[in-house]
Amino acid sequence: MTTARKLLTADDLLAMPDDGKRYELVQGELIEMPPPSITHAVVTGRLGYRITHFIEERNLPFIYGPEAGIYIEQEPDTIRAADYALINRQRITEPLPERGYAAGVIPDLVVEVISPDYPRSAVDAKIQMWLAAGVRIVLAIYIASREVAAHHNDGTTQRFGAGDTLTCEPVLPGFACPVDDIFAY
Q1: Predicted TM-score (pTM) of this structure
Q2: 23 part of a folded domain
Q3: Pick the residue with more confidence: 47 or 96?
Q4: Which residue segment(s) compose the domain that 173 sits in?
Q5: 15 domain-assigned
Q6: Structure confidence at residue 102 (pLDDT)
């Protein structure tokens, strides 16, 4: 006789005691996430800084930040944490909760920094999950090859490598960041 596993909810994830580990919830299944490497954190910070500076300099209507739990599916629940997320304030119809997750508040842009040992199938699945949830652009930043792939919700992908300038059209018109600057550590 087999016993069905109980699927967890967003409330269950929120109620978990702090054991020092990071978790995501994928269709009710708890997924432990290893802490990011120092290189991962530096790359996230370098690009996040440039995007943040661009937004603040132009007073654009976005909220942004690293590692926020994004509630992208319900029943079964999915809470994913992007390395950096950018959300247009127009997508926020209710006050954000002080604690917990806001269902239906989907980022316009998500940054995922990909460590060399992260399985390609897991990368592709996470990118597709973001796009299916309504994210307009997912930037996959590959540490090993020092490349960026911009996956758009229309199914197109732009690739940027050494010597190229990363853009984030149509989410951030006018934004430009040399790819080499992202990896200059």
Answers
A1: 0.92
A2: no
A3: 47
A4: 36-67+79-182
A5: no
A6: 83
